[in-house]
Amino acid sequence: MKRNGRIEGVAAIILSMMFTVVAAPAQSQTQRDKLNLSGEWKHIESGSVCQFEHEQNSIVGKFTTVAETLATGYGFAAGDVCFKGTLSELRAEGQTEVHFPVSVKDTCPANWRSMTPAELTVSADGKRMEGKWLGKELAEPACTETQIGWIAQTYERVKEIKGVCGPDVTKQLTSVMQTLAKEFDAATPAKRRDACNRLVRGNAGYGNWDIVQLALDGQVVIKKQYPDMCAVPGKEKPDQTKGLNSCDRSVEVDGGCHYAGAVNYVSYGLMFRMCTYADWKFMAVQLQGLVGSIDYYKGPVETPVAILLNFLRRVNVRGHNVMEEVFGYNLPPPKGKSDNFPQAVEWAVAGYKGWPGREAYTYLYGPGACQTCDMSPFVKELNLHVPAPPEQQPHCVSCGKPWKERLTVKWVGLGIFDVD
């Protein structure tokens, strides 16, 4: 619009802004960690919709739907920048893209569109952003810009971007537990002892056991099964595209989404428990030994067993290492705590206590000859308290697809088995 020979930048109704978010004093650190502005936001003043991408402290918003007045009067289009800036708690400071009327595009081509300072403050629940942008007007024919003051603006969240979990592996994981129990029961005592010894050599038997497709080196299989449908990283959390929170490294089990590398430990738990009936070293430590071995391998080394192992590996008597003399092997130094240590322990304990329940097992090894599930005291004990591991990836929605490949379970000393 014109005023005294000037064209007012009303179109600057914030079509593209760069801003930084600063937190309100009352917001806790936990709340700030969960805040993510990724998703669709409606610009209330204009009715346009912008898609925001939020990575760590960077925010970029682009138009997906442009209100007719902005499109025809000021030349905005889908893909134009709505926002672009840096995040710092709940306050956003940066820039907004402004357009002057299309009627001056030919007269002032270099000044027709430009950036202007903008500010936004995010509500505590992360569903609303209120702020302002610095309005401008354009003087003809010199095409010079003049600031005219701050103009209020508001955004309301339309839709968040959630990641998608990997395929449902419950059926195959249950088969893994059945197969391990059956194969262990059928093995000779010497073969059982050999397999059990390998569980504790090195760090928690590293390299001697795994569900290959769930272990770190095999997780690429998760993504390949349903490209762009399952195991898709989202942006609900700043760190969701990497490490423990990444949906593209997850699988669904019993309706919950879990980090695949942690689910892998359910087999280790069952292996360890069966070994309590085959080797005195395991019988002596049982569940405490299971948790302690994982603590030594990837934890803070705070459990009694892990502390003892860390001590014994360094003790020498008359030139002989105590670990080597008593157990026949020594251990490398602890590696330090991994991000998925708590989840790995939870899944291992679940396997030790009988996940997924009595119906999963056809055979289990116990004292004496082969026994069925219903008759074995071992199985009955396991099923007293069968845990349901907590959902670790609530920000990953289910893709609703089954795992469509076999799982390969490896236990050096016992064998390598493909299960459906």
What does this molecule look like?
- The N and C termini lie far apart (69 Å).
- The protein has helices spanning 29-34, 68-74, 170-186, 189-200, 220-225, 260-263, 265-275, 280-298, 304-312, 322-327, 341-352, 377-382, and strands spanning 2-3, 6-8, 16-17, 39-43, 49-55, 58-65, 81-88, 91-99, 113-122, 128-139, 144-160, 163-164, 209-211, 250-253, 256-259, 316-317, 320-321, 396-397, 407-411, 415-419.
- The protein has 12 helices and 20 strands.
- A hairpin with a 4-residue loop joins strand 10 and strand 11 (144-160).
- It is elongated and about 95 Å long.
- The chain has 2 domains: 2-160, Avidin-like (Lipocalin), CATH 2.40.128; 163-419, no CATH class.
- The strands form 5 sheets. It has an 8-stranded antiparallel β-barrel with strand order 4-5-6-7-8-9-10-11. It has a 3-stranded antiparallel β-sheet with strand order 13-19-20. A two-stranded parallel ribbon has the order 12-18.
- The longest helix has 19 residues, at 280-298.
- Mean pLDDT is 75; it is low at 1-33, 236-242 and 358-391.
- Helix content is 27%, strand content 27%.
- It has 420 residues and is an alpha+beta fold.
